[in-house]
Amino acid sequence: SETCSGRCNAALDNTKPCQCNSACVNFGDCCPDYQSLCVGGGGGTPDVTCDISCLANQLWDNDINRVQVWEYEINHQGQTTTSSTSDQAAQSLFTYLQEENVFLKPTYSTFLALLDNYTPSTSVAESQDAAEWIEIDAFLDAILATDVMNHLYNFLVEHGHVTDATSYREVIKELWFNLYARSSSGPINSSGFEHVLVGETSSKVSGFHNWIQFYLEEKKGAINYQGWVSRSQPLNIVAARFTWNGLSKAKGSFFVGVSPEFDIAIYTACALTKPNSSCSFTMAGTSLTIQTYDVAHKSGLQVATAYPNI
């Protein structure tokens, strides 16, 4: 029973002491001969050939919608700490962005249409009407047509997390757009998209790990950027201290300049392969860790939060 003979690529079988599909690599329950029979060509199609670092580099290299260095400028001054009580930044984080070049791209324009669908306060229940689901589907149509999301799809199929395009889309919806309660006894008040990419508030700011939302809120005066706590220069990741509508965020980290599809893809990969844990990999020659958490009181996997841990 502890063999993959005749079982390569078979679905999970809890009656067996070990498994013979690509998911066993993640769960550590492969049969002793899995590599030789199922991956090495002895008994089935090769399974896992691309790990999380491999995928991360595919996403980075194929993010053709990433903002070019000449299309924006950020303020690198004003180092601070999470415990500081003074504003260390003399000016805003974003000092320039060629909106006319960036925001007309389909994945950006459909992303922007979603931002006003949410109420940041977690004390207010959320709902999604038909018009908002049309906007969500338009965004999904736009990002799923990109090479970035195609590489994620191939990775998730290879690792046993989705089976086809239909299940892929449903997994993305469940992770990011289906609403849930942030506490087991609270109202239906949140989603992965709202928390991570829009931001939420209670007595302070929570989530808010997206550069586009930061730029827009800063532009209209809702954000007071108070300095950077840490940053990763090669990948242009910033961990900023700021206030949003008067409420504080001691440290909010986000990739700067990446496309909406890149954020969705890298956080999805980590949420599915390393839920509730650190997801470490090397991308563009730089070591990086993404932290994700699931919604513990709801069945299945959802994105409670996800962010670069720098």
TrEMBL record:
Cofactor field: Mn(2+)
Catalytic activity of the protein: ribonucleotidyl-uridine-RNA = a 5'-end dephospho-uridine-RNA + a 3'-end 2',3'-cyclophospho-ribonucleotide-RNA
CDD domains linked to this entry: XendoU
The keyword S-adenosyl-L-methionine appears for this protein: no
PROSITE patterns: ENDOU, SMB_1, SMB_2
InterPro entries on file: ENDOU (IPR039787), EndoU-like (IPR037227), EndoU_C (IPR018998), Somatomedin_B-like_dom_sf (IPR036024), Somatomedin_B_dom (IPR001212)
Protein keywords: Disulfide bond, Endonuclease, Hydrolase, Lyase, Manganese, Metal-binding, Nuclease, RNA-binding
Pfam families recorded: Somatomedin_B, XendoU
Enzyme class, spelled out: lyase
Keyword Metal-binding belongs to the record: yes
Binding partners and assembly: Monomer.
Family: Belongs to the ENDOU family.
PANTHER family from the UniProt entry: ENDORIBONUCLEASE-RELATED (PTHR12439:SF42), PLACENTAL PROTEIN 11-RELATED (PTHR12439)
Protein name per its UniProtKB record: Uridylate-specific endoribonuclease
